[in-house]
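Re: the 122-residue chain
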Amino acid sequence: MIQLLFFVIFGEGVMAFLLLVKIGPLRDIVIKSLDQLKMGKGPATVKTIACTMFVILLSNLMNIVKIQNKGAKLGTMSPMDQVLWRTHLLEASLIGVFILFSAWSFASMFIVLMLTHFMILL
């Protein structure tokens, strides 16, 4: 799952970069594809994926807290608990970045589309 999260975050970064840099046809393709995503089943799919990722994030955070509490009760953490704690912490941080980038990319997409439509009207 960690490799998938790295891939998703890299893809979001590329999309954000293409929206920021004015590379003619690539930016137009990204804007058109994001515009088509807003129509049809796109918004429901995006909300479903975001909610699923949020539930996975909460599950990882709960597991982190459980492992820390277990270590506090025993006074020390076993090597297996340390590995599990680090894995859950890495997954939680990657999912948090994914959710942050998703919110930022949709906000930037909205701003870019509004500015584009505003410039057309002028």
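The helical segments are 2-20, 24-37, 42-74, 79-121.
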